[in-house]
Automatic annotation (TrEMBL):
SUPFAM superfamilies, alphabetized: Cysteine proteinases
Classification of source organism: Bacteria, Pseudomonadati, Bacteroidota, Saprospiria, Saprospirales
Gene3D superfamilies: Cysteine proteinases
UniProt key word Chloroplast: no
InterPro entries in the cross-refs: Papain-like_cys_pep_sf (IPR038765), Peptidase_C1A_C (IPR000668)
Domain Peptidase C1A papain C-terminal residues, every copy: 74-252
A Pfam family that the UniProt record links to this protein: Peptidase_C1
Name of the featured protein: Peptidase C1A papain C-terminal domain-containing protein
Keyword set, alphabetical order: Signal
Leader sequence segment: 1-19
The species this protein was found in: Neolewinella antarctica
Amino acid sequence: MRFSFALLFLTFLCTCVRAQTPTPDNYSQEKNSEKMMGITDRQTLDEMMFYVPGIGSSAPTDLLRQNIKSYMMPIRKAPNARMEWAYALTSALEYYYNLNNNYKENLSPDYLAMSLANQGTQPNMEDGLRFLATQGTVSAGIVSFGSVVIPGAVYSVPKVKISNFGYRFQRDTKDRNKIFEVKKALSRGNPVLVELATPAGFDRVQGGTYLPSGPNVETHFLTITGYDSDAETFELRGSFGRMWGDGGYVRLGFADFGKLANLGYVLIPAP
């Protein structure tokens, strides 16, 4: 009798413990894809960040300086400041897309901007990154530069997408860490998209070196294509046309970059 009572009590206790333990279904639910976009953990991003064979390298000379400008498509001019983010974003995506293609394809920044505007949002870089990961963009041959409408042909062509994107640095990142993270990405052959706070008149810069002066009153989106540790400069690609800077590019000192750069993104291209 005593043995039967003990066995009954043990069975009851185990049942209670099982009832309080979460079922596996609570953990097997797939997380919302929106929450998974935009990797902020640096170790995770380092593991997922693309390595471009033949461009990125751990050789000492490549760690000292790196530049992927020659692999980028020609400079294009955004029609207005509101389109800078879209032009910078598609130029970075073109870089990955054309690496393995014998032809050189222009991708449409206008499709990105119009698609997001049609969704009722004020488009920005982060919106564009999420849209590229979920929807993608199309060739500029389908939605040309300067288009004001999206043609029906976009629904019958494949989209160019990214798998994800990561924050190489954020606003509260220390200046020296911003510089380090950008150099790390470029040394592996990855362009870095940057949101830059600048004094007035940045879109009228002339010459190869930008020396900022005055209060930061403007925000611009550019692509970092190279660095030189000896000269302590980054090379940035703008969307202001070939008459801006030095053929569409400017060099910015590491110290000034650390102060002006707010956000830095890197794309994780689709397989």
